[in-house]
Amino acid sequence: MAKKTYDLLFKLLLIGDSGVGKTCVLFRFSDDAFNTTFISTIGIDFKIKTVELQGKKIKLQIWDTAGQERFHTITTSYYRGAMGIMLVYDITNAKSFENISKWLRNIDEHANEDVERMLLGNKCDIEDKRVVPKTKGEQIAKEHGIRFFETSAKANINIEKAFVTLAEDILRKTPVKEPNSENVDISSGSGITGWKSKCC
Amino acid sequence: MEQLPESSPALAFEKDAFQLTVEDVYDISYVIGRDLLKISNAGEDVSELQFRIVRVLEMFETLVNKYNLSLEELKMERDNLKSELERILGDSSSGHGTQMLGPNKLVVDLKDPNRPRFTMQELKEVLQERNQLKAQLLVAQEELQLYKSGILPQAEPAMVEVDLNSPPTNNPTPPITREEAKEEKTTIKKLFSFRRK
């Protein structure tokens, strides 16, 4: 048997207004680094990071979208393949928070129905410029039944936690299969039992 | 000062009517007044005529004044409109290379090296290709690492893979576990993904 480098591949997507820090959040997670210069993402980009959850190697392919309106026809075409979507706003930018409802509507329109969603209030290190109270983020997340974290790519707050939590939530919904066993009969009793126990 | 003090006020009589200024009217008044004085010195009674002429000259003064003021106003108005027009033309050409023509219309400056030149479809294709090549590079790097560390024997086909399906394809791109099932497992594979509903 050939040795595989991972057991599962999860596709994630980052969306939100331009300048809220989507690329920085991803860069912190994938490369554990931060860059202050603002370079607007052109259309769509991605990064890969492998994490280990419950003894499984999970490869995360994370798509980073451009927030600018002019790229929307390109970025929305990537919603469909996503298993998890992170909605990012900037706690120092009220407009970016108001637009979260718009981004949620975009998900409803373009993404899979069972996609895992998560709300992130980024730049939480800049407390003196905060205009969106944490409670407002919590409230909108609760209304939509999704998880919420305040993050800082710069100060490395909750970044890893957010990605790992999202991956765990997807893993919980993923049918169980013997790792590294490509030829295993997935309709076998053990497989179904395993899946049932996770599901119910 | 005037070189010909006697003749210069009289020049006002020779001017074009529309070129007359209030000063010209005063010159004319001066000349007429002087002439009337000559007549009265000759013993003629011209006082009645004198008042009438003064009255006519006053009316003349008012009319010339009014005409010149109106002319001045029109000139100012014209200059204002001229500079306004220049400002608008300047704004539109030095602006951002583009200008709103009407709803959803843009003008592109063909001399601007950064003018929009490619379609959204072209950008989409270039980005897809970039991302595919990037994914392939990552796969190749990983494989190389495995060969280097001796985990992968030379003859084995590499099983490392990144899902390269571009989003516009209709596959909702399920986890790799499902994709890897062999061809003959297709039906089961389908059942497997359906039962999550």
Automatic annotation (TrEMBL), chain A:
One of its GO terms (molecular function) is G protein activity. It holds the Pfam family Ras. PROSITE patterns: RAB, RAS, RHO. It is an enzyme of class 3 (hydrolase). InterPro entries: P-loop_NTPase, Small_GTP-bd, Small_GTPase, Small_GTPase_Rab. GO terms for cellular component: endosome membrane; phagocytic vesicle membrane. GO terms for biological process: protein transport. Keywords: Cytoplasmic vesicle, GTP-binding, Lipoprotein, Membrane, Nucleotide-binding, Prenylation, Protein transport, Transport. Its EC number is 3.6.5.2. It is a lipid-anchor. It catalyses: GTP + H2O = GDP + phosphate + H(+). The keyword Membrane applies. It is found in: Cytoplasmic vesicle membrane; Cytoplasmic vesicle, Phagosome membrane; Endosome membrane. Its cofactor is Mg(2+). Belongs to the small GTPase superfamily. Rab family. This is small monomeric GTPase. It comes from Synaphobranchus kaupii (Kaup's arrowtooth eel).
Automatic annotation (TrEMBL), chain B:
It is found in: Cell projection, Cilium; Cytoplasm, Cytoskeleton, Microtubule organizing center, Centrosome; Cytoplasm, Cytosol. Residues 115-191 form the RH2 domain. Residues 57-91 form a coiled coil. This is RILP-like protein 2. It comes from Synaphobranchus kaupii (Kaup's arrowtooth eel). Keywords: Cell projection, Cilium, Coiled coil, Cytoplasm, Cytoskeleton, Protein transport, Transport. Its main location: other. The lineage of its organism: Eukaryota, Metazoa, Chordata, Craniata, Vertebrata. The keyword Protein transport applies. GO terms for cellular component: centrosome; ciliary basal body; cytosol. Residues 8-91 form the RH1 domain. PROSITE patterns: RH1, RH2. Pfam families: RH1, RILP.
